[in-house]
Amino acid sequence: MKNIRLVVLDMAGTTVDEDNVVYKTVQKVINDKGFNIPLEEVMLHGAGKEKHQAITDVLMACTHIGNVTETAASAFANFKAELKLAYEQMNVKTFPGVKETMEALRHAGTAVVLNTGYDKKTACSLLTKLNWQIGPDMDGLVTADDVTNGRPGPDMILKAMEICSISDPQEVLKAGDSTIDIEEGKNAKCGLTVGVLTGAQNTAQLKTANPDYILESVADLKTLLL
């Protein structure tokens, strides 16, 4: 097993169980424009991406409209308000065993950073609902607002490495619930990439990105690394 000093974990569907509310909201703001795109297609084409990009990619894959840019911008303009309302009405929790695994990794000397295609305000609102804080519960948070290029670019992982003073990407493991998480890890040249089955995509979909491992949950990282 590689010497892993940093674990970078996606948020929604990986560490945070929010019942796919983000993708349901993406679906709503797109379908409010007169479409009828199923949630499965939204998750297939939008999972793990910065949300304006996700909306754009879903529209490009699932519709034949001429001006995707204008429609995507209009849908995204409604997205943050719709998501804020959805979050206010729901109970956000983590998946079983995830918090304990994060604690065990950090206790063993492995840094844990969360990264996400959310903007910082949304990500921080999730952490507040979980009562998680940078320092006591994790070593850092990297959001779409913190980098120039979102997934599958490596920027967020490189930022996490910078936070933790790690220069060798072979010492980094990236875990997430979508193929774009795996692609992000590979583009950052991470030592290990791991798909988890708690979120957006199934085993067959995750396998298309060739992760090193596919696990039922982030909780299983404890068995893999410790």
Description:
The protein is α/β, with parallel strands linked by helices and 226 residues long. The protein has 2 domains: 6-18 and 92-225, Rossmann fold; 21-88. It contains 10 helices and 8 strands. It has a 6-stranded parallel sheet with strand order 5-4-1-6-7-8. Strands 2-3 form a two-stranded antiparallel sheet. Helix 1 (21-31) crosses helix 2, helix 1 (21-31) packs across helix 4 and helix 2 (39-46) crosses helix 3 (51-62).
Strand and helix map with partners:
Layout (H helix, E strand, L loop, with lengths): L5 E5 L5 E2 L3 H11 L7 H8 L4 H12 L5 H21 L4 E2 L3 H10 L3 E5 L4 H11 L9 E3 L12 H9 L8 E5 L2 H9 L4 E5 L6 H5 L5 E3 L5 H5 L1
Parallel strand pairs: 1-4, 1-6, 4-5, 6-7, 7-8
Antiparallel strand pairs: 2-3
In short:
The chain has 10 helices and 8 strands. It is α/β, with parallel strands linked by helices. It has 2 domains: 6-18 and 92-225, 3-Layer(aba) Sandwich (Rossmann fold), CATH 3.40.50.1000; 21-88.
Key attributes of the depicted protein:
HAD_sf; Rossmann fold; single chain; HAD_2; Phosphatase; alpha/beta; 10 helices; HAD-like_sf; 226 residues; 2 domains
